[in-house]
Design brief:
- By secondary structure, the protein is mainly α.
- The chain has helices at residues 2-10, 13-25, 31-59, 71-82, 86-103, 110-129, 137-166, 173-202.
- It has a single domain, classed as Orthogonal Bundle (Arp2/3 complex 21 kDa subunit ARPC3), CATH 1.10.1760.
- The chain is built from eight helices and no strands.
Length: 203
């Protein structure tokens, strides 16, 4: 007991300040910490979605002249919607474009893959920013489906247009739009709505 009393007497201001700092550290997290945690969660979700899109993009076989349904697009759009920030949209589009370029079956489709992902990412970001706040889950899901359809159309148009100038097309532009881009937009919309609903339910 006597030794404890002596130790307490010898505790100077520095020890008291250290204890005060320890008390401060255990206080509830502030808004900035919460924002960082939310940002980290969104980045992690974006990485997971791009990974899922990469796997699907790799295993789905080409349907027509090396062109395949682009499920990576739907995953990219969900990642943008989950973290509606311009920088996130730009980086997500760039990463998705690089992934698509590595897995494309279209001759000379590497650069068009990057260009179409960046362009569609920025357009989808702009469209999603126009949505009013406070939408119900059903309306938000329906809006996301419509945006996915439009974004897929834009992606396909940019891909084919840039490929036409860079490497040429294996078939007429109109035939590819009607035979590949439109069906892909429909498939992507259904897949995107399903994935978005799952993301809303479990995240």
């Amino acid at each position: 007991m006597r030794n404890l009393a002596v130790e307490r007497v010898h505790q100077g201001p520095e020890n008291l300040e250290a204890k005060g700092e320890m008390k401060k550290d255990i206080r509830p997290k502030g808004p900035e910490t919460k924002r960082r945690a939310s940002r980290t969660k969104s980045l992690a979700l974006s990485g997971i979605l791009i990974g899922i899109g990469f796997v699907l993009h790799s295993i789905v076989p080409p349907l027509f002249f090396g062109i395949k349904p682009d499920f990576l697009l739907a995953c990219m759009f969900i990642a943008i919607f989950a973290n509606l920030d311009f920088k996130n949209a730009l980086v997500t589009g760039l990463v998705a474009g690089i992934v698509a370029a590595l897995t494309t079956g279209f001759p000379g489709g590497q650069m068009p893959s990057v260009l179409d992902k960046i362009a569609s990412a920025l357009v989808v970001y702009s469209l999603l920013k126009l949505l009013p706040s406070g939408l119900s889950v059903v309306k938000k899901t329906s809006a996301f489906g419509l945006v996915t359809f439009v974004g897929t159309l834009i992606s396909g148009m940019v891909f084919l247009g840039s490929a036409l100038f860079i490497a040429g097309l294996p078939a007429p532009f109109r035939a590819l739009v009607l035979g590949i881009v439109l069906p892909t937009a429909v498939i992507n919309t259904a897949f995107g709505v399903m994935m978005y609903s799952l993301q809303q339910r479990f995240m």
